[in-house]
Structure formats: C-alpha cells, structure tokens
Amino acid sequence: MTTRLRTVALAALAFACSTDARKQASQPATPAEAPIVVAAMSGSLAETSLESYWAEGPAKVAAELFEREDYAGARTAFADLVLKDHALTKRRNFMVALCDAKLGNHADAAKVFEASITLMPHLADYLRYAAARSYFFSRQTEAAKAHAEAVESSSIHGADAELLVGDILRGQSDASKTYEHYKRYLESRSNGIRRTEARYYLAEAAVSLGLGDEARQHWIAIVAGDPLSRWASKSEQHLGGAPKLSSAEHIQRGHIYYQKNRNEQSEADFAAALTDTALEPKARCDASYHRANSVYKQRDRTRAAPLFLQALIDCDGGINDDLYVKGAYQAGRSFATLGETGKALTHYALIEAKHPTHSYADDARLLQAETYEKLGDDKKVKELLVSMATAYPDGDMGTEALWRLAWRAYKANDFEEATKWLQKQIDATPIDNRFWAEGQALYWMARAQGKRGKSTESLAAYRQVIRDYPLSYYALLSLNRLRESHPKVFAEMNAEIHAAPKAGESGALAFRERDEYKSKAFARALEFLRLGLSSTASSELHRLGFRAPPGREPLTDADEIDKAWAVAFLHFSIGNYGKALWSTRWHLLDFKRHWPTGGWRQRWDIAYPPGYWDLIEKYSKEKSIPTELVISFVREESGFDPIQESFANAIGLSQLIMPTAERFADDIKVSRETLRVPENNIRIGTNFMAFLMKKWDGQISLVAPSYNAGENAVAKWMKVRGDWDRDAFAEEIPYDETRRYSKRVISSYFTYRYLLHDEIPVFAN
Questions:
Q1: Predicted model pTM
Q2: Which of 369, 370, 350 shows the shortest CA–CA distance to 360?
Q3: How far apart are CA 291 and CA 349, in angstroms?
Q4: What is the DSSP letter of 32?
Q5: d(Cα 126, Cα 117) in Å, to the nearest integer?
Q6: What is the distance between the alpha carbons of residues 522 and 544, in angstroms, rounded to a whole number?
Q7: How far is 581 from 640, CA to CA, in rounded Å?
Q8: What percent of the chain has pLDDT over 70?
Q9: What is the DSSP string of 265-317?
C-alpha cells in the first residue's frame, strides 16, 4: 500500500470472524493492576483521537496479521510486544485472548476475558459476552450462563447474550425453559438478530412439549419469511418437504426473493399466489406486477410484456395507481425492446393520459421522444422535447430534454441551435448534480462555440467546467482539450486548481458539538475502533444514530450535512469504506464543487477510499494495468461491498456475472460463494479488465463500456461510429446504464490518479 493510502487508512482494521483449530498458550492479565480509566469525551468530534493503539512498529504488524485473519501469527506478535504502558499492556492481553478465542483455545481466552471485566470496565458487556461464549465452547456452562445473563439487555451484545443462554438451555434439554426463553426473545425483540434461528429452536422446543401444530406454524413461517436461510431448509425437513403455502405466504416469500434478485424464484411465488381465485384485488395487483417485473429482471422481454398487460388489468380502477403506472412504463419498455414501437408508444401515452401527476409521467414523455427518434420522426421528437418544460415544470426530466435538443442540433452541425439549447439548460440548472452530467452542458457549449469559431467563448466554457465540476468526467475532457490545443491555458488552469482555497473556504472538517460525543456508548465505539474491532465499533455508532440517511437525495439542511459528514468520517476511520462512500456519493455534494486542496482534500480521500488496495495492487501489477483503474471499477461496481449482488446477478467486488467469471477464472472454481471471496473476485475481475485493455489498445473510453455491456456490443458500436471523436462516441452509447457507468468509472480513474499522483491523465479525443 502506498504511503498516502496507509495514512488515510488509519484505524481501518477489520474485525475478523472465522475459526482456526490451532491452539496457543494464553497470557493472562495481571489482576492486581488498576483498571483502565477512559477519559470523558469533550463533545467535539474534531478533538477526538482516532489513532490506533497499534499504529507503529511490531504492534502495527500484529494488527495487520489480525486484520488478515492470521490469528496464530497475530497471537504470537501481540504476545511478543514489549510495552511500558500498563493500560496498553492490558489491551494487548485482551487482543491475545481474542486470538486465542479465534484459534479455539477458549478455556484460556475465557479466563482473560473474565479478568478483563474489572480491568476494562468501559467494555464490560462486550467482555461478559466474550467470556460467556468462550466458557460455553470450553463446556463450562454454569460460568457461561452467569456471564451471559449479566450482559445488559439494552447493550449491543444483549441479543447475542440472550441467544447464548438459549443455546445453554437447549444443551441442558430443558424444553420448558427453552420454549419460554425463545418465546420471550421473539416477543421482546421485534427486530432482534437471528430471529429465524430463535423461531426454529422455539419450534423444536414446542415439539418436545407436545405442541406440534404450533411448531408447524413456526416452520412454515420460516420457509415463507426467511427462505434463503439455512433454517428454511431445516424447517422443510421437519415438515417432510416444501409445505403448501397460502397466497399471502407466497407473496411474502416472493418479495424476499425479489429484493435479493432471485428472480426465477420470485416469479414462481407470485405466479403461485395468482392461482388463488379468492385473492384480494390489492394482493392480486401486487403479485401480478411483481411477477411481470421478475421476468423483466431476467431480461426476458418476450414473456414480460404480456404479463405487464395483465398487471394493468389487475391494478386498474384505483386498486394501485402506482403499480399501474409502473406496469405501463415497464410494458412500454418491453415492447420497445421487442421492436413493437406502436405498443410502446401507446403505453407511454397511457401514463400521461390517466396519471399525469405521477412522477413517471415526464419520463414517459421522454421515452416517447426516444421511440419517435428511432422511427425517424424528427418533427415529433422536437415537439415532445420542447413541450417538456411547460407540461412538467416541476418534473426532473426537463434538463434532460434540453440536453437532447442540444445534442440533436450538434450532431446535425447546427452549432448555433446547439448553443441556444445548451444555454437554456445551463440557465435552468446552473449546477447539475446528476453524476453522469456534471459539466456536460458547459463542455459541449465549449465544443459548439469552438466549431463556430468563437474561441474566447469556447475557452471560457472549458474553464467553467474545470472550476465548477472538479475531477469530473467532463473536467477531464476539458483539461485534455486545452492540453492538446491551448497549452498555455492548460498551464494556467493547472495552476489555478492547485491554488490554496480562498479565505473562509478551507473545507476542513469541523464538526458541531453533540451530546452523543460525550456518551459512554461513543467512548466505547472509539475504544473498539482504536483496538481494531471495527464491526463492533460500527454497531455502537449505529445505535447512536450515526448512519447514512436513507435514499439518494442530496442533503440541504446544515445540521444533517454535519452529521452525515461525521458518519462518513467515522466509518472511513474504521475501515467501513462502503458506508462512508454511500453518503459522499449521494447525500454530501459540497466537496464536489472544490478541487482537493486545503481541507477539501480530506473529504475527497473519504469519498475515494483505498478499499482492498493491497489485493487490487497485487493483481493489477501482475497484469500490467493501472491500479487506479481497477480500484475505480471496484468502487463504481460494488462500493467495496464483497457480497453485493445486482438484479442481473452480478456478484462481489467486481460485480461479475457467471459467464464472464467462468471465462476469466483461471483455476478458480466459480460459484456464488467463491465470487464473494475478495481475492477471487478481484483476481478474476482484473483478468477481464486486462483482456479489455489489450483488445482496445489501452483506450479506457472503450474499456469502461465494454466492462458493463460486453466487448461485442462496443465492437458493434465501433463499426457504426468508430471514426467519431471519443467524447461524441460516448454520448451515443445507446444504453443509458452503460453510458452513465462509463463516465463514472472514468471520473473515478481521473480522481484516483490525481489524488495519488497529482496527475491529469492523458485522455486523447
């Protein structure tokens, strides 16, 4: 890892959770020593220390071994540390015990955890649970039960401790107490962890008490409510096979499959529900639409189209206006893909006619314009696009309509007309926050003015792109246009973007004081963070409300922005890069208006973190492709989530679909499970990227869309528009997803190159 990445990854030691059968001797804590006293927080996050306890020398080596789940090596490294500080020695002993527990040496680990309760009282509930767990695995059930029951129920470990007590009761074969225990757990923790597991064991206890009907109900509830868990298959074994579900249960299970992109299974459940002739109209509409969309998500438009027509019948008449509109929209898209443009236009128009105030209405008009463009009816296209502003003044498609009018004029070499529409777009949306369009209108204004021979106006527009949209795709294009044709202006702009921020605009993170920062829970979170237990720290922060807000809307309230930056900062500091990244992608856009100088640099570092850098660097260097390109693909594909799975069943960090993974797997056996392993996924993904780099002679403008749509699709487009300038070629990529994705990847590549090497990549047009 580079020096910069090591710096920004401070305290990002991931909490590990696997086991190892190797056992080592434990080093118990010294009970005579005084307990650790943790200083109260000031209420100011800026004054909080986030430095790891294991930041330097041999201690850092020990922490890195722990992070890599090499518990034997970490145990030895921690045990060998010579520390003068008594408090740090206690923490070292605790880390040794954690390693022992991971290595299966639970008897020794339990003793240290128990002794540490008085030595580290600020972590008492964590230590009680850890001691209980290790005593349980070393078959000392009374000690295990005593420690588990002593865990504060409201702590983040309370639910775990209660479930451990359940394990102990089951081991004692006390069906009555087991039944009552799990029943209380399910009643008191409506959103508790491992509820399916608790329900399963409640059902087993019910059988022992002669409550067979109740047990059956629990097993069916598991099959319907958590079908992807191992408890569902175990429940089916008790039931003697797949049970007969009610239509409501089929819909319940169908939605779970649907949300997890198990599209064939969701289709089957919704179809099963629809066989119920007594199904209530609202439920029928729900099942009908989601059956159709399950098929659509399988990319089978031929089957999806008539199913959406049925959904329109089932949802019409006010039964569910929202699903009616979405059904008409998806029906139109399906027919358009099948080349049945008349039916597509009918269904788009249906939305405007029956539900003109729905948020999809302006989208439907835009799709009508797209369809007429394919039919070559230029007059109708222009009529629809021009009408958007007056028909839907509050819609979110007005800016897009203006862009399309401008782009049509530009392609027709009517550059005066193009500048007219581009200026309208700039006036309507002075700052365009759509990630695929940041600086788009200004960039093409510069190009159009250049075509008109208006050099002064053209250069002014290029400058404005660079100033208003730092490190964006269009800023990269603008800088390269200047470098190629106006090197003096390029040098001026390069100096300007490196200049220190203006007074009062430093961008430095300065958080508001909050009572949460003074709480014991926040102090515990920082302690876990500094120890390297990021998962546990994250749980404490989540309990305090430090989590990304839902949705994708930019925040405008100053207090909410401050708290969201605190969330991003804290998650970044503990290595939860995906959670930090989410807020900086959607909710926090202030930094994107400033180049990464002064305090703004820290914000850019948080937004573009070094996730899985060591693995990415290893395989990118092996394949001789830029490490910054590989990490850009990973950032944009998965947000550094190794188990993410898309609706198209693309899996893992590099979002690989099975056919592609099998093409480039080398000796890796491809499966859903193996693709969730970071090293496997990055290795295969990098193989694919290297293939594309070779095919397109290193042209990233072609590599990016090929990764998303396939190299054959790009080759097809190249046959038609291969002689176009690359900037124009990108605008004509026919798939919205691929066109926008390509810009995101290239922008990320630019950003990582700039942050790491202070480099503006050469991007020939």
A1: 0.81
A2: 350
A3: 23
A4: T
A5: 9
A6: 8
A7: 9
A8: 95
A9: HHHHHHHHHHT-TT--HHHHHHHHHHHHHHHHHTT-HHHHHHHHHHHHHHHTT
Rounded CA separation 413/448 (Å): 9
The residues, any chain, with a CB within 8 Å of residue 88's CB and separated by 6 or more, are 53
The 3-state DSSP class for residue 375 equals helix
Is 50 exceeded by the pLDDT of residue 490? Answer: yes
Location of structure tokens 């958590």: 226
Three-state helix/strand/coil letters over 328-374:
HHHHHHHHHHCCCHHHHHHHHHHHHHHCCCCCCHHHHHHHHHHHHHH
For the chain, percent of residues with pLDDT exceeding 90: 80
Tokens of 21: 């059968």
At 583-610, the pLDDT tens digits run 899 999 999 999 999 999 999 999 999 9
Tens of pLDDT, residues 465-489 = 999 999 999 999 999 999 999 999 9
- Joined together, the tokens standing for residue 71 give 């518990």
The DSSP line for 505-570 is ------PPP-GGGGSHHHHHHHHHHHHT-HHHHHHHHHHTT-SPPSSSPPP--HHHHHHHHHHHHH
What amino acid occupies position 434?
Answer: R
Average pLDDT, the chain: 92
DSSP state, residue 394: T
d(CA 723, CA 505): 44
34 exposure class (CB count in 10 Å sphere: 0-12, 13-18, 19+): exposed
* Residues 20-38: tens digit of each pLDDT: 333 333 444 444 568 887 7
- For residue 486, the model assigns a pLDDT of 97
Alpha-carbon span 569 to 607, nearest angstrom: 10
Phi, psi of 651 (to 5 degrees): -120, 140
Whether residue 169 is predicted with pLDDT greater than 90 in this model: the reply is yes
Q: Say what the pLDDT of residue 330 is.
A: 98
